[in-house]
């Protein structure tokens, strides 16, 4: 059985996403987030600095939960875990990622956008999912259509989330959290 991301996101409804240019930037960003009482960060595996940034935060800022994002392969999952990530976030659902999440019991937030993808995730025991990219696939209107069909699912909404629209999403009963790069500023 895999570990659910739901308890973590319930405690931390704002999930800032960061793409690092230099690993050391992670410390200053984390300090800014901690001053805002945000104790979670997603470091996207989109740059060469990402893994070292995860490692720096895991060692020097243990009060902030570090997730690795843009995880698309089992190798990335394992490596990010080895560097200190406490959970993984993916843009989609992949059987091999489900298998390593189950094996390691590390929380994994798979991404979905269609009813078929949601059904596949539910079939594997995931009821907390990343809705990505929300801004391209209908945003609130899409969620209004999906929730009556999948009332058991809680979504972490990403894609186009910013300070102007985050509260509208968070007010939606099946949105447990929002994530985005603009939330890290």
Model description:
By secondary structure, the protein is an alpha/beta fold. It has one domain (6-184): Aldolase class I (TIM Barrel, Alpha-Beta Barrel), CATH 3.20.20. The protein is 37% helix and 20% strand. The chain is built from eight helices and nine strands. The longest helix has 11 residues, at 25-35. The model has no long low-confidence stretch (mean pLDDT 96).
Q: Topology, please?
A:
Layout (H helix, E strand, L loop, with lengths): L5 H6 L2 E5 L6 H11 L4 E5 L5 H11 L4 E5 L4 H9 L4 E3 L5 H10 L3 E2 L1 E2 L2 H9 L4 E4 L7 H8 L7 E5 L7 H5 L4 E6 L5
Helix pairs in contact: 2-3
Write down the Rg.
Answer: 15 Å
Between the first and last Cα atoms, what is the distance in angstroms? 36 Å
**Mean pLDDT across all residues, rounded?**
96
Tell the overall outline.
globular
Q: What is the number of helices?
A: 8
Number of strands: 9
Profile the largest sheet. Answer: 9 strands, parallel
Unreliably modeled segments: none
Q: Strand order within the widest sheet?
A: 5-4-3-2-1-9-8-7-6
Briefly, what is this?
With 185 residues, the protein is of the alpha/beta class. It is built from eight helices and nine strands.
Keywords:
single chain, 185 residues, alpha/beta, TIM Barrel, 9-stranded parallel sheet, 8 helices, 37% helix
């Amino acid at each position: 059985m895999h570990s659910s991301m739901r308890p973590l996101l319930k405690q931390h409804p704002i999930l800032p996403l960061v793409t690092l240019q230099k690993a050391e930037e992670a410390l200053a960003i984390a300090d800014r987030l901690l001053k805002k009482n945000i104790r979670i960060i997603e470091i996207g595996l989109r740059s060469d600095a990402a893994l070292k940034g995860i490692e720096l935060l895991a060692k020097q800022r243990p009060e902030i939960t570090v997730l690795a994002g843009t995880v698309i392969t089992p190798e990335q999952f394992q490596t990010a875990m080895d560097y200190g990530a406490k959970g993984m976030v993916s843009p989609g659902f992949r059987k091999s990622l489900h298998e390593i999440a189950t094996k390691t019991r590390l929380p994994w937030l798979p991404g979905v956008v269609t009813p078929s993808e949601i059904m596949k995730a539910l079939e594997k025991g995931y009821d907390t999912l990343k809705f990505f990219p929300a801004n391209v696939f209908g945003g609130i209107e899409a969620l209004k259509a999906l929730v009556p069909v999948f009332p058991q699912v809680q979504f972490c909404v990403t894609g186009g989330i910013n300070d102007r629209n985050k509260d509208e999403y968070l007010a939606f009963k099946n949105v447990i959290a929002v994530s985005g790069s603009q939330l890290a500023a």
